[in-house]
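Hey, resending since the last one bounced:
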Amino acid sequence: EVQLQASGGGLVQAGGSLRLSCEASGFTLDDRDIGWFRQAPGKEREGVSCISDMNGSRYYKDSVKGRLTISSDNAKTTVYLQMNNLKPEDTAVYYCQDAFGLKGQGTQVTVSS
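The structure tokens again:
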């Protein structure tokens, strides 16, 4: 079965760190763009970061620049989102999705003040 699975969420205090993983099963991430999105209660889903395997380019939402880093493993099966200096406003369910619309189950990130 072709799917993406996000993991690594949790509860941290403000200023803490988490590393989210987006693991592909049934396929590799060769030549795929993978994005991380988040949705907080009562808010619209927003794009946080994305990475292009084709050209290595990376995108970050302005509010997370300098705190979040997206990367992928050499096996092209997992995309990571390293999240440092987390803020309460980062609290949301985080999803990964590819450019074809394949979306993984989300992982909850809760940042306490």
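The mean pLDDT is 94.

Sorry for the duplicate.
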